[in-house]
Amino acid sequence: MSSSDFEYPEFYSFPPFFTIQPVLSTREKQMALWQELILRYHTEKKIKTLVVHDCPLWKNESIGRQLSPEDIGVVMTEFCKSGHGEWQDDNETRCRILWRKPEQLATDIYQWAEANQMINNVCTVYELHSGEDVNGMSFQGADEELLRRALSILEDQGKAAIFKGDTSEEDGIKFF
């Protein structure tokens, strides 16, 4: 799927969207729209990392507008503050996209376990990430580190136990 296969929302063609707004209430709405756009784009395309200098979202050629480097920094700072992004490097050039926050994923995983009679049963991290039973689930194909953080939340809540396998893909999870 190329960026041309992505259906951009209507607000993406609104020229002021590409200039950080000075009025606080307007800026908050603008940042929420940027967050929505970044999440939807990366989720639909199953992209786990946003490379700041190589993101097609910053420029809309059809209206001749683009975010300045400073404004990209503002958008990305707010995006990370929202909990949906984490910098992967000190130079803030690569951002891990958290399609869903770890707490949300933990809830989704446990609801899946309940719906699929996995309570008191064991599955592997690989099955949660790539198994046939998880097609269409929010955690299918999720970043492994994010998936493990969600599982740790379930473990802390007493809803799961993680068992070490021979490889990380063979690590098991028992749901309670």
What is the fold's blueprint, element by element?
Blueprint: H1 24-44, E1 49-51, E2 59-60, E3 65-66, H2 69-81, E4 85-87, E5 94-97, H3 102-115, E6 122-124, H4 125-130, H5 144-156, E7 160-163, E8 172-175
Report the mean per-residue pLDDT as an integer: 92
Oligomeric state of the chains present here: single chain
Please trace the helix and strand order, writing H or E for each element: HEEEHEEHEHHEE
| Total count of strands | 8
> Given the structure, what is the number of helices?
5
Are there runs of 5+ residues with pLDDT below 50, and where? none
Written description of the protein model:
This protein has two domains: 3-97, Orthogonal Bundle (Arc Repressor Mutant, subunit A); 102-175, Orthogonal Bundle (Arc Repressor Mutant, subunit A), CATH 1.10.10.10. Helix 3 (102-115) packs across helix 5. With 176 residues, the protein is α+β, with helices and mostly antiparallel strands. It is built from five helices and eight strands, in the order αβββαββαβααββ. The strands form three sheets. The chain has a three-stranded antiparallel β-sheet with strand order 1-5-4. Strands 6-8-7 form a three-stranded antiparallel β-sheet. The protein has a two-stranded antiparallel sheet with strand order 2-3.
